[in-house]
Backbone:
């Protein structure tokens, strides 16, 4: 079954609730089964009047994969991890009717629906996802990118590196997420080998850490 068909089935079961147009880019929010009382911890944005408004904040944040919204309190939360209906998270009993929507970017050219949290970078013809909320060691970061159908990001071109460094420094969550990020070192000249791994710093330079260090990581697909 292709990825596209899979998503079409998801639409039928859960109903695609809204399409968001932002800066000539399209996003789709897919509602997950009711998760009232269940939500991951994060800082809410208050007084956001609609779930589309909430989703607009999400699409402007490179790390947002999901929104949690409650219309009675205009409560909007940008969540860095996708909603699942089995995830154990904080039980907020004072705030029922909290709905969770995974936010997916849709490629304008191919109509492909990207995995939640991925953002399309037209100039580099690639989709990137910045994982910071659950730091991982090197082996696990590779596995998790692969589970999303991708791999750790390669940094072959100067312009792609510059794009990533700009995001790492301009996104407030990433800016406070520590200084090292796992990437995919593709050239084998002078690079460390296990137990040492090469990591990207926020200033765009490379350093070495032991591969069991748990830090944020960047996937692409
Ligand atoms: C949340 O807490 C309420 C009361 O504290 C409890 O009745 C309810 O079962 C809990 N829900 C979940 C999903 O844990
Ligand atoms: C990475 O983490 C996993 C899970 O905690 C662990 O099983 C594995 O041994 C770790 N790998 C390294 C190289 O530290």
Residues:
């Amino acid at each position: 079954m292709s990825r596209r068909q899979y998503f079409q089935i998801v639409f039928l079961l859960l109903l695609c609730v809204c399409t968001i147009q932002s800066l000539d880019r399209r996003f789709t929010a897919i509602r997950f089964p009711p998760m009232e009382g269940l939500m991951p911890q994060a800082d809410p944005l208050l007084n956001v009047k609609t779930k589309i408004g909430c989703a607009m904040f999400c699409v402007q944040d490179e790390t947002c994969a999901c929104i949690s919204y409650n219309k009675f309190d205009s409560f909007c939360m940008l969540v860095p991890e996708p909603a699942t209906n089995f995830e154990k998270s904080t039980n907020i009993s004072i705030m029922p009717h909290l709905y969770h929507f995974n936010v997916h970017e849709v490629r304008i050219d191919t109509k492909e629906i990207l995995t939640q949290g991925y953002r399309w970078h037209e100039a580099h013809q690639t989709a990137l996802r910045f994982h910071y909320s659950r730091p991982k060691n090197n082996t696990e970061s590779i596995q998790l990118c692969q589970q999303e159908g991708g791999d750790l990001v390669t940094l072959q071109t100067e312009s792609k590196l510059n794009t990533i460094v700009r995001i790492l420094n301009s996104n407030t969550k990433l800016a406070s997420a520590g200084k090292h990020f796992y990437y995919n070192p593709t050239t084998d000249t002078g690079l460390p080998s296990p137990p040492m791994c090469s990591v990207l710093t926020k200033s765009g330079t490379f350093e070495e850490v032991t591969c069991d260090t748990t830090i944020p990581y960047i996937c692409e697909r």
